[in-house]
Amino acid sequence: MQGRPVDELFDVVVECRALEQLEVLAGELDRTHPGAAGSLREGMAETLTVTRLGIRGKLRRTLESTNACESMIEIVRRTQRNVKHWSSGEMGLRWTAAGMLEAEQQFRKVIGHTDLAKLAVAIERDLDRTRQEVAPTPTREASIAITV
Q1: DSSP structure class, residue 122
Q2: Taking the complete model, does pTM exceed 0.70, yes or no?
Q3: Which of 75, 109, 111, 144 has the fewest CB atoms nearer than 10 Å to its CB?
Q4: How far is the CA of 70 from the CAs of 38, 87, 100, 103, in angstroms?
Q5: Contact, 39 vs 26, CB < 8 A?
Q6: Phi, psi torsion values for 51, nearest 5 degrees
Q7: How far is it, in rounded angstroms, from Cα 19 to Cα 16?
Q8: Gap between the Cα atoms of 88 and 66, Å rounded
Q9: pLDDT by residue (tens digit) across 2-49?
């Protein structure tokens, strides 16, 4: 189900304002924390994905947080801490996988899991919209060639 044009326009305005505010914040961070400013700029568009998709409630709060990822990364680091000599990149991959399997034991149900179907629909809708914006339009020469 497509949103109403007014709702879609409102979402675009909100996203544009949020991008402007994030850019201002990145500018302020440039002086005091240049690394944080760079990270913010790098992920700026992705930061607003949940907003653009129109996800609300508990699932939105869950997806906006990086706690689950940070927790898994910390467990991987703790697991890799046991390695004293890295013999190859493959060894690093194996230990990373081992750490992720260890972290998996602590995974819990996603808060807001009942809205995951809505998330899937919103992602499909966003992909369709993006494909339509990017879809090539036939040039005049191509349309002439087709009609001849």
Answers
A1: H
A2: no
A3: 109
A4: 19, 26, 12, 11
A5: no
A6: -65, -45
A7: 5
A8: 30
A9: 455 555 555 666 778 888 888 898 899 998 999 888 888 887 777 788
